[in-house]
Amino acid sequence: MPLQLLPASAAAFAPRASSVNVVMSSKVEPWLTQTLKRINRVKRPLNSVSQHQRCLTETLSSSSAIWTLTSLMIQKAPDADLRKDSNPLIEALFNYQLLHIEAYIVHVDMVLRNEVAFKLTPDSIESLIEYHKDIHCVDISANTYPWSEKDMQVRKIHEEFIQAINKFVYRTHVSALEGLEEDGAGELLCGKSEEVKNNLMGMFHPLLPPLPRIIDVVRPQPLLPSSPVGANWWSQPSVSSSVAAPVDSWRVVPSSPSTTSSVDPNSVWANMGLNEMQLPSPTPSYSRPYTTAGWAWSSPQVSAPIPSLPLPSMLAQQPCGIGMGYGGFGWDRYQEYATTM
């Protein structure tokens, strides 16, 4: 890529030079000759490269050689101060205005890059800076939430715009000189003004507020569907220490009618004496023992497994009398005593 050279007059804050830097090639294009003949009121000889260079330099160096690069439709006031009307035409007339962006040529290169360079006039730069400060900065500040460094950030954006607009140089192909008019003035053709507009509007940066801080919110652990409301979810259920004392399996007769057993009832009652058998009167119903533990939920009491024995109702076919025992009559002589009773 060839080195891009610009004169000192193209630098930021540099005043306009008294003469434009024009570099001609060894061959002059026919369109350039026709353009110079069209704009010159006094006919001048254009028979050589040096004559074309001299004529073009004098024309572009004139103080009246001001080009209109583009026109911007800008607001007259911030959004909060705009006039509201049901007629959009009245709103446009009172709230908007056209700002013509003017520039002058600082460099013409027909050898290395075939381009022409434009620099904005001081009046256009001042108008853009004023619009950026009084309208653009006010709007972007009003449209964002406040934070500690907001005003500083707005001032920084404005200072960066001042530097950028003073450094702005628009470069385009040298064929743009076909729009040259009398006294060196001109206008960009072939849609180049839209390109200038996009470049200028790209300098109006938005105000980006800082990202909000992420705060860790401690949320309670959700209760399971089976957990009671208000229970301490993290507490471990305490196992009651009141475990029933172990008892002999032959002394306990379960009261549940649905309990089945595989033990032969004849063998149980045949080996048991009268004085050893203890039949409880009504079997007490099961009740949960009273505990002084807290009102918190606790798991059911754990008790020792109770072996299942035959119920008296299961032995209804073999009622026992008062004389049952090993020394008297037993189960084998039940039929004899039953007939005499």
From TrEMBL:
Domain of life: Eukaryota
Official protein name in the record: Uncharacterized protein
